[in-house]
Design a protein that fits this description.
11 helices; Beta-Lactamase; Heat Shock Protein 90; alpha+beta; disordered N terminus; 5-stranded mixed β-sheet; 46% helix; 6-stranded antiparallel β-sheet; single chain; 2 domains
């Protein structure tokens, strides 16, 4: 197979863009497990180039990210022109492809490739898979799965491209804020529908799969969907907060917060079995609050502690009602937050440079702070070389 000696700079950006989409690796695993195909890939396809951006290779096909095939030797070249998926169960029995140069050249018997189209109609590349043995691919479940996955990848790429174009156009801080908020408001809405489709498709697949390995992969994809949904919720909360006059809360009287907060802790423990989370609640009175927002605050604070806290030390969660005030604190050991970052900690898009690679958009603490304000309360932070503590206080009535 033909490969480039070095990936050109503009194509390296495509490879990097795919590498920043966490779900892609799991998508390729699901493709291989559900179809039985030995090789799957996300490929950047242009008139001149075919470059693998991410691959799963269980048949020693030999391609790795950055690897290249001669574009005119691929069926993806034809898909670029037609923008139609190609699905072959058995090359030897397929009237159209039995003498085609591509399967003869690369020695596969089954093939499926779905075009990845960006929101502006631009053809970007393909989600494809091959195997040296015949496979049953041409059925609605497999085809719809590929369509949903290709759509999800396209939306991610489109969102990143829009983000970079917007950033390049910023000329001062005021323009930056206005354009970013407008972009985020649109982005949150644009991602909800395809994400819901992916979730529905994976749920359908999980009901049809019986072996544990396949189910674990679909569970992992569902976990990615949930994380993406939380990220979109953060984005939309930010957009509503900045564009609509504040984050909305729906306070209810007489909420038994202890019963609502403990499940949040259990979910975090289940998601991070290697970490110790210690909770102690002394909630003896009901609280007037928005219960879902209180769960959101705790979830965000614990997630923040898991990301930045020392893995060798427990995360302590404490909550109590006392003197007409509900108080919730989350404490972790780890590096002290620098004074420069502490000053802007609850502002949106603030991320400490030393740990930026571990974070999302930098909205979680900002949203928690806005939820506290909407309840007439406060969210504060203290940090020392021994511990970092976030404390929420809201009036109970």
């Amino acid at each position: 197979m033909e490969r480039a000696a070095a990936v050109p700079h503009d194509y390296q950006a495509d490879i990097d863009a795919i590498s920043r989409i966490p779900a892609v690796a799991q998508i390729l695993d699901v493709v291989c497990e559900t179809t039985g195909m030995g090789f799957s890939a996300v490929a950047r396809v242009t008139e001149q180039r075919w470059i693998a951006c991410n691959v799963r290779d269980r048949i020693s096909f030999g391609l790795t990210p950055g690897g290249e095939l001669e574009v005119r030797s691929t069926i993806c070249h034809e898909i670029r022109a037609s923008r139609e998926a190609v699905i072959i169960d058995h090359v030897a029995e397929d009237q159209e492809f039995c003498q085609h140069h591509t399967p003869l050249r690369y020695g596969f018997q089954s093939y499926i490739s779905m075009p990845i189209i960006l929101a502006d109609g631009t053809f970007w590349g393909t989600l494809c898979a091959i195997d040296p043995h015949p496979r049953k691919l041409n059925n609605p479940t497999i085809v719809n799965m590929f369509k949903l996955f290709a759509e999800l990848i396209g939306y991610h790429l489109n969102a990143e491209e829009r983000f970079h174009r917007t950033e390049a156009a910023l000329v001062d801080e005021r323009t930056s804020s206005e354009l970013r908020e407008q972009f985020i408001a649109v982005l949150g809405h644009d991602l909800r529908n395809p994400l819901a489709s992916i979730d529905a498709g994976v749920r359908l697949l999980s009901r049809k799969l019986v072996d544990e390995e396949s189910r674990s992969i679909t569970n992992a994809v569902q976990g990615s969907v949930r994380r993406m949904a939380l990220l979109i919720s953060d984005v939309m909360d930010f957009a509503r907060g900045r564009l609509g006059g504040g984050i909305a809360v729906f306070e209810q009287p007489d909420i038994e917060l202890g019963e609502l907060l403990e499940p949040v802790i259990e979910e975090s423990r289940a998601a991070h079995p290697d970490r110790r989370i210690v909770s102690k609640f002394a909630i003896h009175d009901t609280v007037r609050c928005d219960p879902s927002r209180m769960q959101q605050v705790l979830s965000n604070l614990v997630a923040n502690a898991l990301i930045h806290g020392s893995a060798a030390s427990p995360i302590d969660v404490w909550a109590a009602t006392n003197g007409g005030t509900f108080e919730l604190s989350v404490t972790n050991a780890g590096e002290q937050i620098s004074p420069a970052v502490m000053a802007d900690l609850f502002k949106p898009f603030v991320r400490e440079r030393r740990s930026a690679s571990k974070q999302g958009l930098g909205l979680g603490l900002y949203i928690c702070s806005e939820i506290a304000k909407a309840h007439g309360g406060t969210l504060t932070a203290t940090s020392s070389p021994s511990e970092t503590r976030f404390t929420l206080r809201i009036p109970m009535t």
